[in-house]
Amino acid sequence: MTRPGVIEHEIRVIFGDTDQMGVVYYGNYLRFFESARAHYWRALGRSYQDLVDWDVAMPVVEAQCKYRRPAHYEDLLIVETWVSELRAASLRFSYRILRGETVLADGSTRHAIIGGNGKPKALPPQLRDAIPHVLT
């Protein structure tokens, strides 16, 4: 059972996610973060289309991942996702990837909030209000 504000997303490792050693290629963990982030918005009843409608983009400006244990082909992974920092024109998602009770990786992505002109923009109130309380 996760904490309130944490959204869980299941990912089944496919063969194409693995390298010659049979483990998930390190760069694919960022793809897993992205998939979990999109699931997070859907779980809140929102989508990236809402961002388009509000003239907002959220480019990743920082990403980090700490690899603790390898994942393998056919593993069922749970990616826990939550907003760990919310500022006027940026936010940070945190992630934890598990196989059962074993933590395989954790990390975060920081996103700038920009308008269609590429300039910083405040997070729209509708989106800010949809985000559960910020967890650290």
Question: Could you walk me through the main structural features you see in this protein, from its secondary elements to its overall organization?
Answer:
The chain is α+β, with helices and mostly antiparallel strands and 136 residues long. It has a single domain (7-130), classed as Thiol Ester Dehydrase, Chain A, CATH 3.10.129.10. 21% of the residues lie in helices and 34% in strands. It has helices spanning 28-43, 48-53, 125-130; strands at 7-12, 60-67, 76-86, 90-99, 102-112. It has a 5-stranded antiparallel beta sheet. Strand 3 (76-86) and strand 4 form a beta hairpin.
**Kindly state the mean pLDDT as a whole number?**
92
The CATH H-level superfamily is Hotdog Thioesterase
Q: Tally the helices: what do you get?
A: 3
Quaternary class: single chain
Distance between the termini: 17 Å
Strand-pairing-aware structural class: alpha+beta
Specify the CATH architecture. Roll
CATH class: Alpha Beta
Helical percentage: 10-25%
- Spatial order of strands in the largest sheet: 1-3-4-5-2
**In percent, how much strand structure appears in the residues?**
25-35%
Q: Strand tally, please?
A: 5
Largest sheet: 5 strands, antiparallel
Which value, in Å, is the CA radius of gyration? 15 Å
Overall geometric form:
elongated
